[in-house]
Amino acid sequence: AELRMLGQGVSRDVDAGRSELETLSAAGSGDAALALADFYAKGDAGSADPERARTYYWQAATTGSMTALVRLGDLYSDGRLVPTDYAHAVEYYRAAADKGSPAAKIRLAEMTVRGQGTARDADAGKAALNELAGAGGDAHAAMMLGDLYIEGAFGSPDPEMAFAAYGRAAV
User: Which residues 6+ apart lie within 8 Å of 101 measured at CB?
Assistant: First the structure.
C-alpha cells in the first residue's frame, strides 16, 4: 500500500494506497498508521497535514511503536508542522527512550544539554551521549557529541574534542 502511494515498483495511485493503509490502520496496524503519519507529515500528495500526521503518529505510538514516539517528539521539537513545544517533545522522547530507542536517548541528551523542555544540565547530557557513543557504540551519539563540542555547548568551542568524537563515529 505504501509503495503504491509512492509509485515504487508499481504504478502510483495515492488514493488507493492511502485507502489500503487507512483500512489496515483502522484494523489496528501500527505500521500502517506510521506510514500514513509519515505521508501526512511529508506532504507526499500535496501539502502536509499536521493534524492527521499527529493523529496517526499517536495511533502508531499506542501500538508500541518507538519510532512513532520519536517522530512525535520531532514534530514538537522542530516546529516545522506544529508550534515548537519542547516540553511535549521531551515527553515523547522520554517515553521512547524508556522503551529503549537510541534515537530518543540521543535527542533527549541533546535537549538536556541545551535546556530545551527540561532543566539545562550539560554534564548529564554529555555523560548520556558518551555512554551511548562508548566503545562500539552509537555513531549518531558520537556525531551529536562532536557537533555540541564544535558549537561550544560545554563551554568554549573545542575542535579537538569534536574531532575525537567524530573519530568515534567513524569506527
Answer: 66, 67, 69, 70
Please check whether residue 43 is in contact with residue 35, taking contact to mean a CB–CB distance below 8 angstroms.
no
pLDDT digits (tens, 9 = 90+) for 116-159: 999 999 999 999 999 999 867 899 999 999 999 999 999 999 99
Question: Distance (Å, rounded) from C-alpha 129 to C-alpha 137?
Answer: 10
Q: How many Cβ atoms are within 10 Å of 163's Cβ, its own excluded? A: 12
Instruction: Tell me, rounded to whole angstroms, the distance of Cα 43 from its chain centroid.
Output: 17
Question: Cα(70)–Cα(102) distance, rounded to whole angstroms?
Answer: 10
Residue 35 predicted with pLDDT over 80 = yes
- The helix or strand, by DSSP H or E, that contains position 35, with its residue range, turns out to be helix 30-42
User: What's residue 44's pLDDT?
Assistant: 75
Kindly report the number of other CB atoms within 10 A of residue 131's CB atom: 13
Distance (Å, whole) CA 152 – CA 126: 12
Show the cell assigned to 129. Answer: 551521549
